[in-house]
Structure formats: C-alpha cells, structure tokens
From TrEMBL:
One Gene Ontology molecular-function label: metal ion binding
Origin: domain of life: Bacteria
PANTHER family: GTP CYCLOHYDROLASE 1 TYPE 2 HOMOLOG, NGG1 INTERACTING FACTOR 3
Family according to the record: Belongs to the GTP cyclohydrolase I type 2/NIF3 family.
Descriptive protein name: GTP cyclohydrolase 1 type 2 homolog
Keyword Chaperone assigned: no
GO cellular component terms given for this protein: cytoplasm
Residues holding a divalent metal cation: H65, D103, H327, E331
Alphabetically ordered keywords of this record: Metal-binding
Assembly information from the UniProt record: Homohexamer.
Amino acid sequence: MKISEFLPTLELLAPLAYAEDFDNVGLLVGEFEQDITGVLVCHDALEEVIDEAISKNCNFIVCFHPILFSGLKKINGKNYVERAVIKAIRNNIAIYAIHTALDNHEDGVNKILCDTLGIINSEVLIPKTNYIQKLVTYVPEGTDEKVREALFQAGAGSIGNYKRCSFSSNGIGSFEGNERSTPKIGKRDEFVELKEIKIEVIFERHLQKSILKNLFKNHPYEEVAFEIYNLENKLQNVGMGRIGFLETPMNEEEFLRMVKSNTKAGGIRFSSSRNKPIHKVAVLGGSGSFAIKDAIQQGADAFITADLKYHQFYEAENQILLADIGHYESERFTKNYIVEFLSKKMPNFAVILSTVNTNPVNYI
C-alpha cells in the first residue's frame, strides 16, 4: 500500500480541514507514492521514535504533534527537530501529523479525555465557526430524488446527530438556449418554462469539491444553476474542548485525586478551593487557557486542561476550579485511540503503538 492510498483512512480519523489555521498537519516528511512497510503511531516524532521505527521496519510514522511546526531555514542537525527530520529522510521514513484535526473531532482528543474521567453526555465546548455552507440548486420535477441522493452520498445534509437532511420547494423555472446550447429539455432558441424543485442542503466546507462533483454528474441540465452560501451557524459536533457531567458529583479533593489517578498525572496544579461539589466538567486537552471564559459561561464547576500560567489561575474568580494536569497527560491516550482506529479500519496492515515516552516533563 502506498501512503496516498492510506490517507483516506487518516482523513476519516481526523479530517485535515478540521485543523486550526495556525497548525501544521498532514504529510510533513516523505512522498505520497512511497510504499508502506509498517505504521508506527506516536505522540511526538522525536529522534528516538525514528530509531524505533527503523528497528520495527516501519517507514510511516503517524504522530499527534507535528515535529515541523514553524518553518526551518536550515537543516543541519543543531536541534532536536532538525535531527529527527534528517534521520527520517536518510532512512526513507515518512511522517504524518494529526494534531488539531483530531483535537476538533467529536471522537478525538477531548472525547477521549472525557471517557478517561467518566464524563458523560458531553458536547463540544467551543463549536467551530465559519465552516458550514449551504447549497441551493434547481432540478426538473421527477429528478430531484436522484440529485438529492447524490448530494447525500457526498456528505451533504448532516446536522448534528442527523443525516440526509434537506429542504425542497416547488416553483417554475425558465430558460432559453442559444445556438451553441444542447438542451436536454426543449430546443435551441426556444423559451421553456417547466416545473422545478428547489433543493437546499448544508454541508461542511471541506466537502464542497466532492458535493459539486456529484451535483454536476447527476444533474440533468447542460448548465447547472446553483448557489453556495457561507453560514454563520456553528458546527455543533466539531470544535475545541468538551463539557459534560460526572455521573455522581464529587467534592473537590476527591475529584482531583480521581483526575490524577485516571490520567496518570505526575501532579496537578489547581486554583483555590470553592468548597462546592464538582458535577459539570469542561475539558480541553493541551494548552487550553483560552477556553477558561467559555467553561465559566457554560456553568462548568471544573475545567481540566494544561499549560496554565500563574496569572491565569486568577481567572477562576472563585467561579470554577481550574486544574492543570500537564500537556502530555491531557493527551496521553490519544495515540492508543489512533492505533485502535487504524487497526480496525486496516485489520490486515501492521499498525504499531510506539513504546517511547516522549513526555519532556518529569516530576519528583
């Protein structure tokens, strides 16, 4: 199997279009037509992980964090990023990063953290914006079912937990072809009026190309009339963080001990005690200080994240318990999920979990 043939499965796991604009995801090192001998899944594609891939005959590394995040002006091995890239290239090892594409996925990083902490009925904390589009097209009566089904097959019509959603209305369409036209209905230079069906569906922005392809392929007219609008609606199932409930409320100390145990954290930094039970909990794996206000506004009793700075603990304002469990710890089970997903989709292919601990933070 070539890397290009493996990529659709990775897109199912974490569509790259879900990634944040600042991120660097996708195939970072290697060629798309490279044959794969084995896949190694890791958290960070460090030099030690490249060595592990070599020893396990894996020439395709799927990592969570991108080893190449900002641009490199020189590659001469002077730091850990350059050394990893050089070793990968020398040994024909490709590197693919997922990062915020999986952060934003409804089954990704934050759902994994919710499951780890026993948080149920969770929803996206900060839904993705400026991502939903709407297609409007017009078809002759009697062809609408075929066209609508083609749009559904391309991914249009999904709203939250529902799919195949659309709206249709009746009207009268008109057209007149010129001497170069080859109309399917009527003749050149003939004014035609007929009953048409207006079809409206929404879709995620990254699906636009495949949806239009299916529209043009299945629409009966020579020239297809259609409109695409950008909507202000939030994409409810995609976005940063999640918020849900503990099955049974806990006091703060009991809650923090549970979090420490379940995430195997070396330690937890947390804000001042409120002496109130913890029931509604927000989480955001990785650096999540930007979501403190969102967690408070949505009534969370506690917010679990990482990389909080000194002054950011003040932002709790005695309204919420802030807990910093460590960056790696908040994402530590992500690579296990990636292996499970890929192994299920590719049962006859070697997908191996890295055993290298890439957490740069140590505790005493």
